[in-house]
Amino acid sequence: MSLLPDPFMFSARFRHRSVHNVRWHVDQMRAKGLRDVRFITPTALSYGTDGEEPNLAAVEELLATCKEGIGPAGRVFFGSFPSEIRPEHVSREALRLVRKYCANTNIIVGAQSGSDRILDAAKRGHGVEEVKRAARLGIAEGFTINVDMIFGMPGEDPSDVEASLSLARELADLGARIHAHTFMPLPGTPWRDAPPGEVDPATISAVDRLSQRGSLYGHWRKQQDHASRLATAARQYPRPGRSRTLPILADPPGDL
Q1: pTM of the entire predicted model
Q2: Which of 71, 116, 159, 212 has its CA 20 to 30 Å from the CA of residue 11?
Q3: Which of 115, 60, 58, 53 is nearest to 86 (CA)?
C-alpha cells in the first residue's frame, strides 16, 4: 500500500492517506485472507507531519489501527522494504514504536552517500553523522540496519567516492549491511536529466570486498549495466528543449 508519494513526484508536497482510509484497506485485505501489511514510502516516519520532525503520535495511531485491523494472525511491516526511513528521523522512541506494533526486525535507512558535499548538493536534509547515529541507535535497539548507498552520484570526485566507501566500511564494522545501488536518473527527481552513474574499477573492487564479507548486497551491477544503456539511449535520443537538471552545487527547491 502506498502511504505517501515521493515529494518530488507531486510538487514537493506530501499527501498522506488518512488513518481511516488505511484502515479500510487493511480490513479489505483481512477479508480476502491477506495477512501482511506493507507500505511503499521513501520516508516512513514523515507520516502525519508537514514539517521536518516526525509526528510519532500520528505514526503510532497508524500502526496501532493496522495491527488491530489485520488481526492476531497478520503482520505489519514499517520502515523495511519497500519503504525506508530518513536517518535524521531515527530515534529510540520511533524504533520502539516499530518494535511494539510491527513484525520487521530490519530497518532500511536512506543514506545515499558518505560525502557531506554530495548530500548537501542533493538537498538530502541530513549529513553523514546522522547516518552513523541512526545505524548505532537501530543496532542498539536490536534491529538489523540496512543502509541504502548510491555509487556514481552526479558530480562525485575521488574524495567523495572514498568518503562513501569509508562510511560503508565503518557501518559494516558496526554490524549494518549496505544496500548498494548505481545512480540512475529517475523521473520526478532533481537529477532526472543527469548522466547515469559510472563506477570505476577501484570502487567496484572495494564494493566487491564488502559483498564477499557479507556486509553488502543489492543489484548495483545490473543497475550499472542499465545505467550504461540509459546513457547510450540519451545520447541517441536527446530530450527536446531545455534540460531541467540541477547543477551539482546548485540550490534546488525542496529536499531530495
Answers
A1: 0.81
A2: 116
A3: 53
